[in-house]
Amino acid sequence: MPSFNSDYLDYYAVIEQSSPDNSNMQILNSGTNFLRFRAGLQSFGHLNRNRRLWISSTMKQMLASPHVAELLSKGGIPGENGHPVPTVGQVTMERILTIDPNNMSHVIKSFEWNGEILYGIIDTLDEGPGSAGYKFMKNIEQGMDPSFSLRSVVPQRKNADGSITVTGPGRFVTYDRVILPSHEEAYIDKSVPIKNIITKDKFETVMESFTDLVLMNSDKVKRIIDNAEPALESAQITKEGMLTINTENEGKLFIKPEMKYRKEISGLMRSL
Question: Which residues pair with 236 in a beta bridge?
């Protein structure tokens, strides 16, 4: 590390913020009940509202670090609900460099560059009602614009006019969720509508697909339920390959589809 003097500030932990605008949100997926969206994370090449100057090449070097690639390959880079700033005393360097699993609210799945703005694909984390990620999701659904703030340790120089220049790459930690951004150029893609897609377990999802397939294509099933006023939403394929469906006139029907469908279901069951 450089020695301290009036111009150089040694290696400093940096907390920077960027504000995605909810109208620019790209919800891509939701499972167990989480939101995925494309968000602006940080802008480069000019002073931000903290009067700090970042150069994009510096961040590109930081994001190329092995630990970043490892986290992205293992599911993403988790971020916390707020920066790790204690209510009393000073935050330690160790805490800045550590992500608390008990305070995680989201995970960064990937990064994308668009000129001098860094974007990320972000999932809210679903650990059930009351968790940080669940609250984050509900905040978004109520129309709050999510904002993100960089957490890192970098070398920087204080200039004569009071501005600060990041002088080189350091240690990237994450982007935390915050309320007020310092990078006003970072916004969510306003052209993409918000979506909330809930995925299901593999078995349930695949069996629902087979149910639809049988209802639409099995001549035997069509013939039996044709005059029975079936409640199609009640149709289910059992693990034995039997179609069950509630009807107005006949009660609950149990129908064996043609052998070709039952063979497909049997093969599927062995692979799950």
Answer: 244
Least confident residue range of 8-22, 47-61, 76-90, 115-129: 8-22
DSSP result, the chain: -PPP-SSEEEEEEEEEEE---GGG------BSS--EEEEEEEE-SSB-TTSEE--HHHHHHHHTSHHHHHHHHTT-EEEEBS----SSSPPPHHHHT---GGGEEEEEEEEEEETTEEEEEEEE----TTSHHHHHHHHHHTTPPPEEEEEEEEEEEE-TTS-EEE-S--EEEEEEEESS-SBTT----TTS------B--HHHHHHHHHHHHHHHH-HHHHHHHTTS-EEEEEEEE-TTS-EEEEESSS-EEEE---HHHHHHHHHHHHH-
Of 21-30, 129-138, 227-236, the range with the highest mean pLDDT is: 129-138
DSSP string of 97-162, one letter each residue: T---GGGEEEEEEEEEEETTEEEEEEEE----TTSHHHHHHHHHHTTPPPEEEEEEEEEEEE-TTS
Residue 14 exposure: Cα atoms within 13 Å on the Cβ side:
30
| φ, ψ at 139 (rounded to 5°) | -60, -45
Would you say the pTM of this structure is higher than 0.85?
Answer: no
